[in-house]
Each structure stands twice: as structure tokens, then as C-alpha cells.
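User: Structure please.
Assistant: Input sequence and predicted structure:
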Amino acid sequence: MARLNKNGILSGALGKIVFVNRAGEAHVRLRSGSSNQSKNSEASAKGFGVNSSQDSLVRHAITEKLYIRNYQCFAVNHRTRLRLTIQESKDQEGNIFQRYHNPQALVGTVFNNQWQWERATSFYPEYNLAQDHTMTVALPEINLGKQIKLPKNSTHATLNFHAFTIDPNMGNPVAEILSSITFNLEKNKNIPAQDWVFSIPNNAYWAIIIATISYTSHKNNIPEEHKHTGTYLWAKKIAKD
């Protein structure tokens, strides 16, 4: 949009015409119809678009198997984190290829900006993946009100842990659940410390552990933005490329 300044000189754009003021002089030029981008810039822009489309498929594959409350921020945060897992490579002709590689960047993804996992919890499982791909997750003692904070009006919580595999590079990715564990929590009732053990297939591309908490109350009067939280707790690439 072109604007008229106090000296009566136009600045800005009007249709295809651009008005530019330099050193007190007014210049007029046509708006450029295209921009020159390097191959790397073009590849980066293309990768951003491809990631947006693929992230939608990955999220659908996961939420088809696991319940995650669909806050608007979840899609944005997930897409941003998934983008960080892309690794670029070049062939002998200089062509750039992009592939989802190390999933570590997914850990800590925020599912709910208003009630983030780090704000809602203060417990930290320990993870041990043996050479035979047996996974042992040491869960500490958990108390609702201490290790898990209660948002306003909530009285109960359901804590879920899920381990699953997925290959985000597939045209139609599928999440395969390996193991799940659920705790129904009440105030001042402890869940004892315990080990959660399961096996990860050798041919899995990514193995991921996700945790979610859903809050409830007898009067169903919890603010919408505080009903659910979650994150990716652990993620590892298993299969070799």
C-alpha cells in the first residue's frame, strides 16, 4: 500500500508500481514478479512445505492411536519440532535430499501452551535401552498434588505413558504401539515406584515414548486450557539408514 508523507511524496506500493524515497529523492520502479534464490534457499523453502504436509500425516498417525487433546498450538509446535529432525545430504551432482533422521528434537514438544508439561509435573523417569533392545523405564513414586500439579478445580488425573514406533519418511506413516501404561490418580494417594519394561523391534526406524495427563473434576468445571497436557519424553532412531 502506498502512503503520502507530510512532504506530499508517495512511499510504498500501488499495484505493480513501487515508490521509493532515497536521499530526499523520489524513485518509481515496477514490482519484481519473481525473486532470485540460491539452490539451497529453494531446497529449504521446498523442505518447509514438504515438512508441513508430512507433519500432518505423522500427527494423524499418532493421534489415530493415542488421545491428544487437539489444541491449536499442538500442530504448530509439532511441525516446528519435526522440522528440526530433518537431515540434508547432497549427491555427486549437487542435488539436495532431505530425510527425517534423529528424533531427539521432538523431546519436550509442547502440546498445550497454557499448561505445559514442565509446569504441570516434577518427576523424571530414567531410561535404559539394552543391546537386545529391551527398554526399561524406571518410573518414580508419583503423587497427585506433588509430582503432578493440579490445575484449578481439578480433583483427578489420568496419566498415560505410551511407547510406539513410526517411520516419518513413509508416504503413509503408521504408528505402532509397543506398550502402554495408565495410572488413575487421586489426591494424596501415591503411585509406587516401578519399572516399565518392553521390547523395541530391531527394524523400527523411530522409537518414541509419549506421556499425557488428562484432568477431571466432579463438577466438570476445569478451564478448557487446563484439561490436558503432554510431551514426548524420549525418542531414538533405531534402524540404520
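Residues 37-46 have pLDDT under 50 and may be disordered.
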